[in-house]
Amino acid sequence: MDKLRVFTTFSGYDSQCLALERLKRNYPQFDYELVGWSEIDKYAIKAHDALFPGTTNYGDITQIDWENVPDFDLFTYSSPCQDFSQAGKQRGGEKGSGTRSSLLWQCERAIEAKRPKFCLMENVAALVSQKFVKLFNQWQLTLEKLGYRNYAKVLNAKDYGVPQNRERIFLVSIRKDIDMTYYFPQPFRLEHRLKDLLETEVDERYYVKEEVVSSIVQSSFLQRRKLIHDKKYDEESGGIMRTLEARDHKEPHMITEDVQKD
């Protein structure tokens, strides 16, 4: 089996390649080669170099001359989500708008120039919300015109072995001349809780400040516990409490309203 040649963009520390490393361990017949990646954040670059030393960072995606990049089979692009995310200002990602999320359209240049067999996109679920789904469909149509079949689905990390309520939209695109159909993995029972992953000894500099803890306990957290207890959550959900968000100490009404809607 030939090595799968891979190019990742908006790479971060490259979780995509970490997944490929796991495939290598579990399936000896599989192998891949990271032929290049694109990242500009200095801390992400340091992390990437530690994990995958000796690989070439092509830097700013807007400046890449794709004709000078080696050919690759798999192209991944987890482009910036800030302008789609509900936690951001939701300025969108229209082509030419200049927002961070509009960097998605830089990937069109790469795909058109290199024609990889497979493309993989990951982004926040808000990209397929009513506000942004038109843009998402426009992107899918762009890929179709470039000769790809698309498979899209929102997946939640908690359905795939990770104790985190984290929804993301995944888009798998396969070049039309390749006789292959993609099926998303089926969810499976979560066997681990967050407490199973936490370290027993943590430096105090990583502790949440006492005033933040106090504001959470005195507001949203207690209200949440009462509301969920009234709904007999122990019986209905196996004792799994709903998500406590980082911003709840500032806007506790978000939790109570969220629970009351259910």
Q: Write down the oligomeric state.
A: single chain
DSSP helix fraction: 25-40%
Mean pLDDT: 85
CATH names the topology of the largest domain as Rossmann fold
Strand content: 15-25%
Shape summary: globular
Which CATH first-tier class of the largest domain would you pick? Answer: Alpha Beta
Q: What's the alpha carbon Rg, rounded to whole Å?
A: 21 Å
Please report the total strand number as a whole number: 6
Structure class:
alpha/beta
Polypeptide structure, described:
The chain is an alpha/beta fold and 262 residues long. The protein folds into 2 domains: 4-175, Vaccinia Virus protein VP39 (Rossmann fold, 3-Layer(aba) Sandwich); 199-261, no CATH class. It is built from 7 helices and 6 strands, in the order βαβαβαβαββααα. α5 (210-230) runs parallel beside α7. It is globular. The model is unreliable at 231-236 and 252-262 (pLDDT under 50).
Task: Provide a compact summary of the structure.
The protein is α/β, with parallel strands linked by helices and 262 residues long. The protein contains seven helices and six strands; from the N terminus they run E-H-E-H-E-H-E-H-E-E-H-H-H.
